[in-house]
Amino acid sequence: MLRPFLPGAKPHPAIAPFFQPIVDLRQGTIFGHEALIRSGAGIALPGPEAMLAQAAAESRLTGFELHCVEAVLAEWGRLSEPGRLFVNMSADTLIEATDASGGTSWLETMLARHGVAVRDLVVELTEQRAAGDADALHDAVKALHAMGARIALDDFGEGHSNLRRWKELQPDFVKIDKLLTQGIADCPQGVAMVRAIAGLGAAMGSELIAEGVENTKDLRVLRDLGIAHGQGFLFGPAAPQLLLALPEPAAAAIRDGRIAVMPHESQASQPNVLRSLPVIQAPALSPQTPVDEVSAIFLKHPQLHALAVVDDAKPVALINRQSFMNDYARLYFREVHGRRPCLAYGSSTPLVVERKENVESLLGILMSEDQRYLNEGFIVTEKKRYAGLGTGDQLVRAVTEARIEAARHANPLTSLPGNIPINIHIERLLGSGAEFAACYADLNSFKVFNDHYGYWRGDEMILLLSRLAVRHADAHRDFVGHIGGDDFLMLFQSPDWHQRCARLIEAFNAQAPGLYDEADRQAGGIEGEDRHGVVRFTPFATLAIGAVRIPPGMFRHAEDVAGEAAIAKHDAKQAASGLTVRQARPRA
C-alpha cells in the first residue's frame, strides 16, 4: 500500500519526476517538457499507471496526484531551466488545485514555494476519468487562465478528449493522440484526419502538439500539415535531466526545406452518383391501379418513359411506356383489360438502384448481361423506399462523368495520383520555395505496340513503367503521378534525380522487350502503322524522360511547371539517350 500523505508534504522519495521534450516543429527548438512520474526504489508498484490505480483503489487519487504535482514543481524549480512545464492533472485534481475559497489556491502556493513562474506552467488535462462536475471544471480552467497559466487537452482522439470538451474549455494546446500520428507518412486516412484536426485548431485558436513522433518520415508530414509542436522518442525519451538541444536527425529533418510527399489513396473514394443525378419525380401506381388509369397518367405526362408500381412504399414492378401503350392500342385490349389491376402488365423484375450506390457497383450494373434498363429505365429508391425514376442514358452519362472525375484523382489502371493531386503537389513545392526537378516520362513507339497486340498488352507495358517509376523514386521525397495513357510526371526532390532517371530508362528499356512475342523479340521489333499511318518496322518501345530544374521563385502556377516539363519531354523523344535536361524559362 501507498503510505499516507498530505498535499504539501515532502514528496515520497520513490516518486521520481522525469521530463520528455516538446519540440517546436517550425523553429526546431525545445518548446518545453512534459513532466512524468516514475517509481523507483522503495515502492513495490512498477509504474505510474499501477500507482494511480492503487491510489484510486484506496480513494486517494486526487491527493496522490497533488503529491506528484508538487514533486514535479519542486524538481523543476531546482533545475531552473527556461521553457514551458507541462504537468498532468485529472479534472477533479485541477478543480481541487485551483480552489481559492480559502484565499490562495493550492497551486499558487506550490508555484510560489518552489520558485516556478506561473507563465511557464501548462496543465495537461488527463483522461483517467471524466470530470464529476463540469461546471466546476469550467471554473477551474478560468481560474487557471486568470493566474496566467495555460491548459492543454491531452490525447485528443482517445477517452474523454472530444469536440465538446474542446469547444467548452477552449484549451491553449491540444495534444493529438499517437493513434492518429504514428505511421502517418504511410496512411492517407491519418493525413486526412490530422488535416481536419489542424483546421479545427486554427478555428478554435488552439496550438496542436503531435504525440508519438518516432521517425523523421512522420515528422516531415506532421510539420507540413502545419502542426506546431511534436513529442516522442525521436526527440528524446523521458529522463531525469532536461534536454536542451534536439538530436541532429530530428533537427536536420525540421530544417530540411524539402516538402513531404503525402501518402496517396490508391483507390480514390468514388462519388455518390445518384446524389447528383436528377431523379425523375413520377407518380407511383399501386398494384391495384386499373389499366385504364395507367393510360390516362401516361397521356397526362407525355415526358414519362415509365411508371413504377409501388406497394407500401417499396417498388414491385415497372411499366414501360412504349410497350404498355403498344398493347393498349391493340384491338379490344382496353375493353378486355381496362379495369384489371396494372401489376400484371409491368416488369416484375425491374432494375432498382439505391441512391447510396457508388460508382463501382453501378459500373457492375452497366457491364451486366441484362441491358433491359437502357430502354425501360430503372427505379430509384432511398433507404429502400420509392424516390423516383431514372433513364439508362442518364445512368451511363453519370457513371462516365464520375469515372472521369475519379481518374483525375487516381489513375484507375496504375492507382497512381492523377492530375488533381499532381497539381496540388506542384503548388506545395512552389509554395515551399524548394528547388525540384519536374520530369515528364513518355514511351517511344507505344502506339504501334498497343495497336499490334491490343490494349490489354498495352496496359501491361504501362504498368511496367508505373512499377519501375515508383521503384526508382524515394517514396517520401519524390512524387510519381500518372497523367494518363503512357504519360507520367515525376517531381523529384532527391539530389540524385538525374541518376534515378537514367537508371529508370535503363531498367525499362531492358525489360520492355519481354512483353513482345518471341518471334518479334528475335526480330527486334514489329511491323505496324506509325502515328502518320505509314506501315514500317518499329523497334522495341523505349522510355524518354524530359527534365527541367525548377528554381525557387521562378514559377507561381502548376500549369507553368507542367508546360516546361512537356517541352522537355518533346526534346527527350528526339534524343538518343532518351534523357534531356531543359533550362527553365520564366513564362511571359
How would you sum up this structure, described in words?
The chain has 588 residues and is an alpha/beta fold. The chain folds into three domains: 241 residues, EAL domain (TIM Barrel, Alpha-Beta Barrel), CATH 3.20.20.450; 130 residues, CBS-domain (Roll); 170 residues, Alpha-Beta Plaits (2-Layer Sandwich), CATH 3.30.70. It is built from 23 helices and 20 strands. The protein has an eight-stranded mixed β-barrel with strand order 1-2-3-4-5-6-7-8, surrounded by five helices. A five-stranded mixed β-sheet has the order 15-16-14-19-20, with helices on both faces. Strands 11-12-13 form a three-stranded mixed β-sheet. α19 crosses α20. The protein is flat. The N terminus is likely disordered.
Summarize this, please?
With 588 residues, the protein is an alpha/beta fold. The chain has three domains: 15-255, TIM Barrel; 273-402, CBS-domain; 413-582, Reverse transcriptase/Diguanylate cyclase domain (Alpha-Beta Plaits, 2-Layer Sandwich).
Distance between the termini: 79 Å
Stretches where pLDDT falls below 50 for ≥5 residues?
1-9
Question: What is the average per-residue confidence, as pLDDT, rounded to a whole number?
Answer: 87
β-strand percent reads 15-25%
CATH architecture name of the largest domain: Alpha-Beta Barrel
Helix/strand/pairing category: alpha/beta
The name of the CATH superfamily of the largest domain reads EAL domain
CATH topology term of the largest domain: TIM Barrel
